[in-house]
Amino acid sequence: MEKKDINVEVFEDAENETPQQPVYQVRPHMYEKFKPLSAKEIIHDVLFDQLATKSYDAQAAAQWTKDIADIIEGKIKNLQFKRYKYIVNVVLGQQHGAGVKVGTRCIWDAEADTYAYDSFINVRMRKILSQFSHFLFLICK
């Protein structure tokens, strides 16, 4: 049997390198935190643009509600806050002059999650919109 020379090079970095552990981020950094004022401005603008010239129509109300929720969710996603999930809740009703109370609940982390809220009321209809932003902390980098 012949002996063969084998050239083995050892890199210094390879000797000292330790395997990286996964990084779990359970809170957003301050600069990554969702800004509810930005969402409130979007909600206000969309509600005004979509409803200012309309009168209440029971047949069209369901579609208006879906359209407004989709527009607002899309615009809020365009703000590109990392690792947030958005829930948009829209309530549309006819304005008869009587009062109405709407309550929404959401279980969340008070340090990372937040919400934005706005309403639109004219002579014929009222629209109440709330949007919740949840930080997803179960994702590994």
How would you portray this structure in words?
The chain has three helices and three strands; from the N terminus they run αααβββ. The chain has a three-stranded antiparallel sheet with strand order 1-3-2, with helices on one face. 29% of the residues lie in helices and 21% in strands. β2 and β3 form a beta hairpin. It has helices spanning 12-16, 36-51, 58-77, and strands at 84-94, 114-121, 125-135. It is an alpha+beta fold. α2 (36-51) packs antiparallel against α3. The chain is elongated. This is Tctex1 domain-containing protein 2. GO terms for molecular function: dynein intermediate chain binding. InterPro entries: Tctex-1-like, Tctex-1-like_sf.
Question: Short description, anyone?
Answer:
InterPro entries: Tctex-1-like (IPR005334), Tctex-1-like_sf (IPR038586). This protein has 141 residues and is of the alpha+beta class.
